[in-house]
Amino acid sequence: MKRLLILLALVSTVAATEYSVDISGFAFDPATLTVMEGDTVTWTNLDQVAHTVTADDASWDSGTLNHGESWSHTFDASGTWDYHCTIHPMMTGTVIVEASSDVEQGSWGAVKELFN
């Protein structure tokens, strides 16, 4: 039973996570976010004016988000992703995506040890 509980705990640490970024006061909050590969970030526009969430390299773009609207993006590759609002270019943010392979290998290594 103890092995099963540990296995479930380890597997849950590898599962993708969802994060939220508020767009409020002409800023992204948090402005910098660190996630793992496979995680999803959802931006929600809390301002009364429209905004966008656009990667600096144009690899992803929310389109126009009006008040109360949200948009999500799943990050499948590691790296640093700078983004901005195309309507208000002074609004900037960064998503740092860490490789998940190291975590997965470490977790599965621990699981293998339980059954040896």
How would you describe what is shown here?
The protein is an alpha/beta fold. It has one domain (17-101): Cupredoxins -  blue copper proteins (Immunoglobulin-like). It is 23% helix and 34% strand. It is built from two helices and eight strands. It has helices spanning 2-14, 101-114; strands at residues 18-23, 28-29, 32-36, 40-45, 54-55, 70-74, 79-84, 92-98. The protein has a four-stranded mixed beta sheet, with no helix packed on it. Strands 3-8-7-5 form a four-stranded mixed beta sheet, with no helix packed on it. It is globular and about 40 Å long. The two termini are 16 Å apart. 19% of the residues are buried. Mean pLDDT is 85; it is low at 4-12 and 104-113.
